[in-house]
Amino acid sequence: MTAQEKLQLKLKSGRHIAVGLDTDIKKIPQHLLKEKEPVLKFNEIIIEYTYEYAASYKLNLAFYEKDGSRGLEQLQRTLELIPQDVLTIGDAKRGDIGNTSNMYAVSLFEHFKFDAVTLHPYMGFDSVEPFLQYEDKLSFMLALTSNPGSSDFEKMKLDNGQYLFQQVISKVKDWNSRGNCGIVFGATNEKELLENVDSFEGLTVLLPGVGAQGGSLEGVVKAFKKSQKEKFLVNVSRALIYRSQNEDFGKAAKQEIISLNNRVSEVWHKG
Amino acid sequence: MTAQEKLQLKLKSGRHIAVGLDTDIKKIPQHLLKEKEPVLKFNEIIIEYTYEYAASYKLNLAFYEKDGSRGLEQLQRTLELIPQDVLTIGDAKRGDIGNTSNMYAVSLFEHFKFDAVTLHPYMGFDSVEPFLQYEDKLSFMLALTSNPGSSDFEKMKLDNGQYLFQQVISKVKDWNSRGNCGIVFGATNEKELLENVDSFEGLTVLLPGVGAQGGSLEGVVKAFKKSQKEKFLVNVSRALIYRSQNEDFGKAAKQEIISLNNRVSEVWHKG
Predict the structure, then answer these.
(1) Fewer beta carbons under 10 A from the terminal one: N or C of chain A?
(2) What are the tens digits of pLDDT across the range A21-38?
(3) For chain B, which domains are there?
(4) pTM (two decimals)
């Protein structure tokens, strides 16, 4: 099954939430620290309780790479715990010259076997093309991010009247001949989302920033509903996986993702 | 010794070459394939023959990450082979929201103990600040890269009359209050280098693109000489480490880096 097909099945069943497994040993419930591999145990329980309700798991490589080779081993073992029908996103934000991006594509798509990745667009077409050659995978290019620094460059105006992030969206649409391109659009930019959602034609959209960063879930769903597009994934990390610090943290995450799914459904089907 | 001090000593002794240890098992001499760890053996020999002449070793993480945890172990063991007085650059091109960039900074500066890193500027200040908090390290932000795709966004004109890459350089200078910022400027952009080198005040410049990508070493040195700046590092990877496919590949790399050092010196001291 291709990444696009996996995602389509989840979206059709009303699942739009990507669970961010950005697992930080300093933030997991204390009782897990007595486990041999606390991070892996935490991920295992979160997956066990949420996989039926999740559209996707997004794993940020930084949280694993920080422990070097041992961390990447835990990343790999976490990926093996995720059921095949749930989309896996390697939130890697890579981007390099073609020769090197090719190595990153081998790493993320062949070694770790992610279904999808996130990429920096700054270096242009040949820096992302090695990823796009994997037709059955999805590549999300950063357009407008959820952080304050998005105003430093992404929101700068070009002399053609467009903002830089709009230019990125426009180029990514040109690169989407295989239908395997997406963009990252921070949910904290509600105004820009409303103004630009009509231009996302054909692209799958990954929206971080709901939860700890303050973006509105309802705002996101309303924008896509207005534009009659359903190819969107809302990532929630900290506000979901750290919902409880007690033994019941798995159950708490399950209740939270069910509640998030319900909130999406209410806005989508209302009126 | 801080990264800045290490680099300063090398530059003062006329060493401006960064050796790119982008080691690809498909490109190393065939006789090494009988070794237990061919990539590590190759790196060991290249380092042994070149460390007296190199200003820096630049390791691109993609070439190691592609083998997952085993690859990162080889990266770590390669770093342990590099003498303490030679600057190590983790060519990682990272950049994420603050919370995550902090994890990458821990990975690159604390776990792997690189002296310097390369970063994507696209997401703005808070995406690079966790790295800049390490005062004794160097952070090179991508300004104008050496690849064809640099024309997709980096060379776009903003409505303030500047090109995007010039805006990046200007912002990086604002972020350089601790003196630990640098930029990446592709040597293939000789015209842009000549036009902009005077604006690099205070920044250390890493220039990839000489060798396999076609940039001119003499052109780079002339530009910096004209602007009376000596804080530049020219990276050479494939054209140096794969100079020979025979048993003498270490010696061939040594002759090549000596020749590169001489070519820098000739232009620098001429006329």
Answers:
(1) C
(2) 999 999 999 999 999 999
(3) 3-269 (3.20.20.70)
(4) 0.97
